[in-house]
# Entry
Amino acid sequence: MPRHSNISGTLYVVATPIGNLGDMSARARRVLAQVDLIAAEDTRHTRRLLTHFGIRAELWSYQDHNEAQMAERLLASLAQGREVALVSDAGTPLLSDPGFVLVRAARRRGFAVVPIPGANAAICALAASGLPCDRFLFLGFPPRTSAQRRAWLTGLRAEPGTLVFYESGNRAATSVADMSAVLGTERRAVLARELTKRFETFVEAPLGSLAERLHEEPEHRLGELVILVEGNRQTDGAAQEAEEARILTILSADLPLKQAAALTARITGGRKNRLYQLALRQQGKPDLK
Ligand code: SAM
# Structure
């Protein structure tokens, strides 16, 4: 294993599959086979995965409840020059999984931290959802009670990026009903279920009807799921329009309106004709038909 530092060990943050074992990367297998020890969420689960790939390794349990104490032990191992890998039960560690305390402390103490990328349910769902991916917000699991959830969702109303949530099957129907109540029944949403597995399904519907389907059709609540909700496009559009108007006002103070509109279009990506009409209105002149 190449050492990333000659005075101490390296911490590898290793992604594992979220269902389909074919998604285990060759690099992840090589790293897991070569490190001195592996910190795992559920050691029995990880042992089965390693056995499948013919890997024998020393496994330490690293969970939310013993995170601080185990992080210290793992840091002591790194200080002795041992190579350590961190895995979770599925997907990428730290993403709604333990590992933050360890990674932050390892970085602060100057150890090399090397990501070994692979599956992640949120990114996997987003990439195939058909919802915009240019801007998104990963939110993990929503609060568990409806009252807390609604208050929390209220803070997300104006967010223009696609919202990505993890949710358990038994809370999915009430959670999506709350999203519909707070974010609006017409927002486009996608339910991505059992990703990379045999019964992988994507259901796309406005939030209101997705909530109804989840309530009435229990098969949509089975297995593991990711909920994606389109961002607030109105806010995005309004922000864009405000920016266009601001630039247009500045430029048309010193330039002929046509030139100001053309330049604003180049800066903002807006349409020249529409901006010219806007410039005319800003100057109190009638629109040209
Ligand atoms: N660290 C993991 C990752 O990188 O995706 C996520 C761990 S979190 C404890 C588990 C949640 O991720 C599940 O409740 C579900 O919301 C989502 N998830 C994990 N695997 C999934 C799959 N195969 N299909 C859909 N959602 C999945």
User: Anything to note?
Assistant: Strands lie at 10-14, 37-40, 59-61, 84-86, 112-116, 136-140, 162-167, 188-193, 201-206, 225-229.
